Amino acid sequence: MSLFNLSAIKLKDLPKAQDAYIFGIFSDTGISAKFKSAHPNLCKQITLAMDSGEFEAKLNQTLVHYMPDCETSKRYIAVGLGDSKNFTADFLRQVAATAAKKILDLKLTSFAIEFMGESNLAAADAQALAEGLVLGSYRFLNYKKPSDDYPGIGSAVVITDSAISKALDYGMQIAAGVVVTRDLGNHPSNIATPSYLADTAEAIAKLGGMKIKVYEREDFEKMGFGGIQGVAQGSDVPPKFIVMEYLGGGPKAKTLGLVGKGLTFDSGGISIKPAAGMDEMKFDMLGGAAVLGIMSIVAEIKPKLNIIAVIPSTENMNGGEAYKPGDILTAYNGKTIEILNTDAEGRLILADGLAYITDKYKLDGLVDFATLTGAVVVALGHRYSGLLTNDQVFADQLIEIGQKTQDRVWQMPLDDEYAEDIKSKIADVKNTGAAREAGTIAAAAFLREFVKEGTPWCHIDIAGSGWLKKGRSYQPEGPTGAGVRLIMELIRSWE
Ligand code: BES
Ligand code: ZN
Ligand code: ZN
After folding, report:
1. What is the pLDDT of residues 300-334, one digit of tens each?
2. Which residues form ligand 1's pocket by a CB distance below 6 Å?
3. Domains and CATH numbers, the chain
4. Which residue among the candidates 261, 347, 448, 452 is catalytic per the annotation?
5. What global pTM score does this model have?
6. Which ranges of 270-342 does DSSP label H, i.e. alpha helix?
7. Best mutation site among 373, 380, 382, 462 for ligand 1, i.e. most ligand atoms within 8 A of its Cβ?
8. What does the longest C-alpha to C-alpha distance in the chain come to?
9. Is the pLDDT of residue 366 over 90?
């Protein structure tokens, strides 16, 4: 949950004394003339702090002042905005998160926030500010008793003179979707089961007037979903294959396809994972959770285009009927798969998802999200998601949006010849590439076999970007919500 409710207000309408009043200062241009004339005493203090070198207004630096006889607030918190020449909307996302965190650290519950000395915010800045406040104050407290650590949900008001309340609302809606994804990821696998994901999808569908169909284990055989059927065999927890249809555009509107890996716990199966860190494999459903986060925003804002979402969801366990190395599975498009490692299960459930969605729908673009390979963490760390594609124009669009939103993606090659890495001697393909060679690319080359020819497709591997052991800025530790802001901006550009 986010710990602050947000609203926009004009300075003259600020209702009551706030616990704190937060403002930003650039490191190069310093305090604005307008702010100086409005707060002369405060500015003397800040100038002292800046002249002494104790506060340089570096990005995310903070400075707290206590003001005795001030009606607006007892506390003023200056936040560094860094160099004005480098300023981007993401700086605002960051400093808003820094501000919210400072408030939480001080155990306060209400604050007003303005930036750049009361000058007007652009819409993109206002959106980023709202996102930063909500995302930076996100904490997952569902399984904790109420404690003194957090005094409860507080209120934040954004001081502005310009008509940015729409952009603030939009930022809050986007952030709320990211929160949906983070919450789904944080819930443990005994709560966030495939049924839980299906129930969440049902609730979202109801809210957004979407159609939904959930296929059960009993349906897999007749549907030809041999990939998810094989993976789910080792678990008694019922698997689900979720299909959501949002038809918000007219006949000429574009249709976007989304597929998310909803693996609610990955033990590795018979090719079992080491014990250390296995708890983190509750996060192996973050691709599916990103798609649900996106659909939850879509349900609210109702964009004018069509979106089809598919989330194959199961555990990967080693029960008595578990699939085994050497087994052969047949995916929805009829291709046979030799299993050489049961821990490479994500690509098997995605195979059915990708084959199904491209068979049933004519898509203008298809994006899949998956915590698919450890190799992408080795290659890119935790900052960028890996992107692989069969369509450079579509990929370029996402790469650019990734830079704009700072929900970043980095492309890896996927030349046709990588198909050789996944050739099997006894089936059409095998579910592993060459040992320790280009694991992320081999996985994508495998997925490509299940995307119907002619569909522009991007695969996004979020195994590194999906969650953080050590939080930063507006991404506290745990699930980040990678992919949600990226796709929401794509949707906006497609409308
Ligand atoms: N869910 C994992 C990928 C993963 C690993 C995500 C670490 C996040 C952190 C996936 O199912 C997996 O186990 N992949 C294997 C594939 C290999 C056996 C070909 C991997 O990457 O080691
Ligand atoms: Zn695995
Ligand atoms: Zn997995």
Report:
1. 999 999 999 999 999 999 999 999 999 999 999 99
2. 266, 284, 341, 343-346, 371-375, 377, 432, 439, 463
3. 5-159 (3.40.220.10), 174-494 (3.40.630.10)
4. 347
5. 0.97
6. 286-301
7. 373
8. 81
9. yes
